[in-house]
Amino acid sequence: MKVKGGITVLIGELSRRTGVRAHQLRYYEAQGLLVPVRKASGYREYSDDDVLTVAQIRNLLEAGLSTQEIGFLQPCVTGTGPDLKPCPELLTALRARLQGLDEQIELLARSRKVLHDYIDATERHAPSR
């Protein structure tokens, strides 16, 4: 069982503290990123540690990582910023994600150029007013 620190709160309070909607918190739980303690009543209990975990998840999502990638990297995450401790294959995973983003950017740049070419060609053939 995961050891939790600080005062425990229910999902609504965690949502208020983090600015993340309850359904998103349940999604993080379903993805294995957030592991609340379950009360006998079935309610989820969260701690101050979970507030930090949600902040880390949000930051990694903002970096463009998938929840699957975050699950892989989560043991390496420390603090609220982009602080990662060296874990096996960490840099390989981050570099692979960066390469994927670079390839997407290149594809978008090519698509943008072709679209501009179509617009320019169409404007050249349009009747002048």
TrEMBL record:
Origin species: Streptomyces plumbiresistens
Protein known as: MerR family transcriptional regulator
SMART domains given in the database record: HTH_MERR (SM00422)
Keywords, ordered alphabetically: DNA-binding
Database matches in Gene3D superfamilies: 1.10.1660.10
UniProt KW Metal-binding keyword: no
Keyword Metal-binding attributed: no
InterPro entries: DNA-bd_dom_put_sf, MerR-type_HTH_dom, MerR_fam
